[in-house]
Fold each of these.
Amino acid sequence: MRRYAFLALIPVIFALDRVTKYLIIRDLPVWGEIKVNSFFSIVHVRNLGGVFGILNQGGYARYIFLIVPVLVALVLIYILIRYTMSDARTLALSLILAGALGNIYDRFFYGSVVDFLDLYYGSHHWPAFNVADIAVSVGIGLIVLLEIAASRKQCSRN
């Protein structure tokens, strides 16, 4: 039963991602910025490339970063439906899927991903990101932690 609660997070995170991006598109021009404090701004940037702006020049990258995430999302949907797994792994894969769907939506309808959270220290900036990116990052981080824990458990048995 808890499995479905985790799966229910997918549309919730997707909706949160859509609402936040809609507000940015509506209220802040592209390249606009609202300084919140000395290390955080709300910005409106368009990412044509991959995670954290990798290959942000467009061209073939635009198609690669639409097709590959769609394939990943399809595989994740299959895994979540077909296999029984721990709650933590279901949560992790659900977060990754929710984030992937949010960014796929942007790429399909806008041709780029809307990023708006900007962290920095002085002139050092972390690439702008969004709610979908947070979901994917937390999901991947959780999988890494699960694998580390499983590895340690396996080592202690030997």
Note: Residues 2-157 form one domain.
Amino acid sequence: MSDENQTAEDTMPAPPAAPPIPGTPASAEAVATSEASTELGPQDATPPDMTFTGDAADAASRHRRTMTGTVISTKMDKTAVVSVQRVFLHPKYRKYVRRRKHYMAHDEHGACQLGDFVLIEECRPMSKHKHWRFKQMVRRKAG
């Protein structure tokens, strides 16, 4: 009698409930109570993983690329041209090859002189060609 009125959907068992996701409330009641119980103040607006410790400038400079090279020109105002040499093994001929590239580095105080061996670090673009900053003197030109 009542069996004839039932459809196939009614006779199928309900799918099993999915396991709860870690870190989420188990039910809607838990969501409502957790929202009511926790009110964020102005000091809590930043999530815990976004807090900064220490000097922000120091933290930002830790991940910048650095290179060492020889100053080949100081003719521009507050700019030094640094020649950086890299040595690599040629993949086919198995011979060491030297390549040089010139970088324009910002030298605020004009400390670099021709022939000095210096350390430069990557920074924001300061002009069309200048993306590096003089960081420190490694050694002065002998003589």
Note: Helices lie at 2-5, 8-11, 28-37, 56-61.
Amino acid sequence: MKDPKGTASKATTAERPSTETQARQGQWTAAQKLAILAEYESYARGDPRRGELLRRMGAYTSHISKWRAQRDRGTLTSHKQPASGRPAQPRDPQQEEITRLQRENARLTAELDKAQFVITMQKKVATLLGMMPASLPNDDG
């Protein structure tokens, strides 16, 4: 701010509320969310006090929308919020080892198939170029 002489002056604490007493953004308890929501809704739409409340609390209008939806569904209570995502499945070390070995087996089988294909092609090219006699014993068995 500038005073009448045009020099900069420090903002008063009334203009900028202290952030020390605010909850960190995104870390509100259910009771705090309900209190913020009640205060926000107590102001008329377009009232500048709504914006001031959000700035003071470090919240956004998207938080208000989300909290309204949670309140309407009944999930915004003092109790712990339900965990999001799928519940964790218990780990079975033997099944993990089986899965790993199956993947390794599939990889090695594919590698062997490629190597056998390359060898077959090399034999055919050598036969076509006359480098090997056509009557070699079969390596397959």
Note: Residues 93-129 form the longest helix (37 residues).
Amino acid sequence: MLTEMFPVDLERSVSICVIWECRALLHVVRINRQRELIVVDINPNATGLPGIEQLRVIVGAVMTVGLILSVLALIISAIVWGFGANSSNPNLASRGKLGVLASCGAAIVCGASVTLVNFFWNVGQAV
């Protein structure tokens, strides 16, 4: 079939290589023509399961509790830092500093969690 389309002398090795390359090329073209692109398009559904709205309320309440606890930890850590600095206790002062940084980090994570999830969702959709 291929030799009918491309009349080549089969006695030469160069001709045989050309035929094999053409067959491979035709084979690849046939595979690409037969493949159909299957697109999976799934988006989040707010009404798919019962209780989604209650789950949103619960997550919002947990975020509020996390922010309140972060403020409480910040206050306690600042007090510990102050006591450590004024009593010449570097260990207590360093623990207070670490607590202040940890509570600020927790507040950042609680406040930015929705934005971070949306950002990475959009990054994942772009892949």
Note: The two ends are 42 Å apart (CA to CA).
